[in-house]
Amino acid sequence: MNLTIAGLSKRYGSKAALQDLNLTLEPGIVGLVGPNGSGKTTLLRILATTLAPSTGTINWDGRDVIRDPDRLRREMVYMPQQFAGYPHLTAFEFLVYLAELRGVARGDARRAATQALETMGLAGDAKRQLGAFTPGMLQRLGIGYVVSTDARVVLLDEPTAGLDPFARSLLCDALLRTARERLVVICTHIFDDLELIADRIVALRSGRIAAHATRDAFIERARGRVWEIETDAYPDALDGRVTAQRREGDRSLRLRVVHAFEPQPGARAVTPSLQDACAWLEMHEDGIAC
Ligand code: ADP
Asked: 41 C-alpha to center of ligand 1: Å?
């Protein structure tokens, strides 16, 4: 079971959003990272078959997805950044509708909808129309839908932004439980979640792949480049990129800095995180080998 992308490009007018991507994705959890505008949402939408590429091919288990999108659609769930439903449908009706679109039989679709609502603490809202849902409730509904399906491909665009810790942990848990049997692609800026669950990282920059590696190999590239400094006041000038800052007591400040070498005397080398590794990658125009 794999999803293979070859020579994939997408142009919006004169703007190249994706350029000649080549990638094979296998079961497991893939973290799709990159700065704003690097092409993450465009790639997810193309994989979700809601957007056509300008050139290139996508194969799912050896079948051409662009010519025959229905097969992948039946086996996939996609949660876009702004998860939205038809405002006149109730939450229950909408979940059943989504499952039926994937070819799930009505009885199973109703059972999955009930389970999704219960899991997310939305059982009392089952009969409310989506038009009355807040964005946060819609997002919870979307997560409930994702965790209640057995889709073999799960595409999530910023699924945890703004989500409460309970819902976040529920999603991570559900994804980890089924990670061996399906391909999950998550695009997020919440690196803490990704660091815990991703098997592989695909990093985009300006529409190209800047790195594709196992999570550990990707993070390892930043070893020896991440430093912690303790200071009384924020330094006027500091080499490198600050990835975290924390107040310690009243006076002292602890900064985490990514830099090729000790940014100032007394800096302590620390174990890199995924966020540090992303910063280290962004500091290299030509990408880094993993
Ligand atoms: P990301 O998800 O990494 O922030 P996007 O895939 O949204 O990046 O965007 C990639 C590039 O394509 C950006 O430069 C963005 O401005 C451009 N882009 C995205 N959608 C459109 C659109 N509908 N029309 C024109 N340009 C777009």
From this structure: 7
